[in-house]
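New to this. Comment on this protein:
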Amino acid sequence: MTVPRSTVAVLGPGGVGGLIAALLARAGHRVVCLAGPGTVETLRADGLHLASRRYGDSHAEVEADTELREAPDLLFVTVKETALAAALERVPAAALGDALVVPLLNGVDHLVPLRERYPADQVTAATIRVESTRVAPGRIEHTSPFAAVELAGRTVPAERLDHTAALLRGAGFGAAVRSDETALLWDKLALLAPMALLTTRHAAPVGEMRERHREQLLAVLREIGEVAAAVGAPVDMDQVLGFLDAAPPGMKSSMQRDAEAGRPLETDAIGGSVLRAAERHGVPVPVTAELVAEVAARAG
């Protein structure tokens, strides 16, 4: 599919949003980053700098503003869940037009409020698998050998999802469209939750987590697999374990990096999503609940 030049807004040009903005701008699309005044000033003056083992080092000129002032073709929502409510004030519903909203957020509970704020047929489910960090405003380090986006929207016309996937592939991302948004979100959560909770709780990268805390890891994987099956989105947890066993030993979760930097943690979006679904479906998850409580206590 040939994708014409599009106008893309990125709400939150951090590790994920900055990578998306940089690669789409490099591919020739018009990119508008929405952020706070300090970041906006930096981006206007110096653009986005990307350092990536996969895509190489590059510089991209982007537009930047504190609020969406004209309708784009696409809006990527890439802030942390802890900042979502405040960040959405930068995107008035009246300014969105008919843009497709693509939230690349952790957890599974964000679609309801987004579909209440914006037209439901313009909000898709989406996930990204990547390790990418904002090391300073406008400076992004992409350290994973992959960057893969999946889309699935029961409320969104299929052709819009196909167009968005083609746009992302044209910029260098892996991108695919799936039919079941619940399965899409739980596939991501089933991998993210154990990795985020355990690496943060033990202040350890993936290699140390899977070796020194393997019994706890296996217990959490079992519990999350049972919850996923109960919500109607069964996950191959052996495959999840295989991914964790094959991941670079020094890999860190974004939650662990947030903890190291003293930033707010997405404990509720990630661990809380599992606990709420477990409670709704009567699935006992004692190990996961203990981990969530310990991480929450650490965050203060």
User: Anything to note?
Assistant: The mean pLDDT is 96. The domain at 183-299 is CATH 1.10.1040.10 (N-(1-d-carboxylethyl)-l-norvaline Dehydrogenase; domain 2).
